[in-house]
Structure formats: structure tokens, C-alpha cells
Amino acid sequence: MLLRLRLGDDMTTQACDRAASVLHRGCRLAGWLVLAAAAVAVWPITLVTAAELAVAWRLGWLAARLGRQAGWTLPMTAVWMAAESARGWRAMALDPVRDGASGWPHLTAAAVMKTFLLVAPVTIPAGLALAALLWAWLATPRRAAPPRLTEPLVVVPAPRHAAAPVPSRLDGILGPGVPR
């Protein structure tokens, strides 16, 4: 039995819409999984960002305050960079990567704490800056999405009001609201 597909067929349109919806949801899920994998890979920055977002939300801080905090932590990073540059620029550039990678083989509380403290001069300013950007993005009001062109336009009739009462000659004499 052959299945004929016509361009105007409702079943074909619904099937295409369903397939597009499934594809769209799959792509969104894949994007969230990639984002989660990246967040796990740079867990010290994720930890600082999540903690600062929670504090900003709980205390009602503005994103600018998080940005100022990130700026105030930059001297710590400058001192760390000056100390590491004595070993050479190549060692300094790869040091956060090596320190971060050292915490993965043995996931114990002591190893995680040691790794976090080794990369703290880099991750705290980066986490604060990322938290400021995310908080600014989350705190801005959203506009309503434009209507989709494929949805039918629904016209709702205006409600009918009762006819306004006709004023009588007695209203001027007795005053408004006086029973007759």
C-alpha cells in the first residue's frame, strides 16, 4: 500500500510539525547536556558562580555589585600572575590547567579542597564575573514572545454591556440615587 503525501493534507502537516518539535527538543537537550558537561569540567568556576548567584538572589543584590566584587578580586590574580611569571610564561599559562586536572584522579574531600585552593586566584574573579553576567541576564525583564505565524488568530468578541439607563426628568428634581 502506497502512502500518498499531499501538500495540504492535515495529517502530513501534523506529522511534520511533530517531527520538527521532536528535533527542536532534542537539539535543546543536547545543548543543555553540553553546557552541563562544560560546567562539570570547570567545576571551581561553576562552584563560585553558583554560590554568588545564590547569595545575590537571597540578598537582592544588583549585578553591578557582583561586577565590583569581581573587580576587587583582580589584585589577587595580579599577585598570583606575578609570582607564577617567575617560572616562565608557558608554565604560568598552563598552571591552572595542571592544577585543575590534578583533582580529577582522586576525588576525595582533601584533593577537591586542594585543587580549589590552587586555582582560586583565577577562578574566584572569573566566577564572580560570570555570576554578574548571568545575574544581569536573569534579572532583566523579558518581553513577550512574538506570536507564531502558524497559530490561527483567535478573535474574542467584546462583551456586551447593558444599555445605559435613560435619564428622566425626575433625576434633576429628586437627585441621583433617590428611589422613586
Write the layout of secondary structure elements.
Elements (H helix, E strand, L loop, with lengths): L9 H32 L1 H17 L3 H10 L1 H12 L3 H13 L7 H31 L30 H5 L6
What does this structure look like?
This protein is an all-alpha fold. Helices cover 67% and strands 0% of the residues. It is built from seven helices and no strands. It has helices at residues 10-41, 43-59, 63-72, 74-85, 89-101, 109-139, 170-174. The chain starts with 9 loop residues before the first helix and ends in a 6-residue tail after the last helix.
Q: What would you call the structural class? A: mainly alpha
Radius of gyration, CA atoms, in whole angstroms? 31 Å
Summarize the helix and strand pattern as letters.
HHHHHHH
Write down the overall mean pLDDT.
Answer: 75
The fraction of residues in strands falls at under 5%
Low-pLDDT segments: none
Please tally the β strands and state the result: 0
Distance between the termini: 81 Å
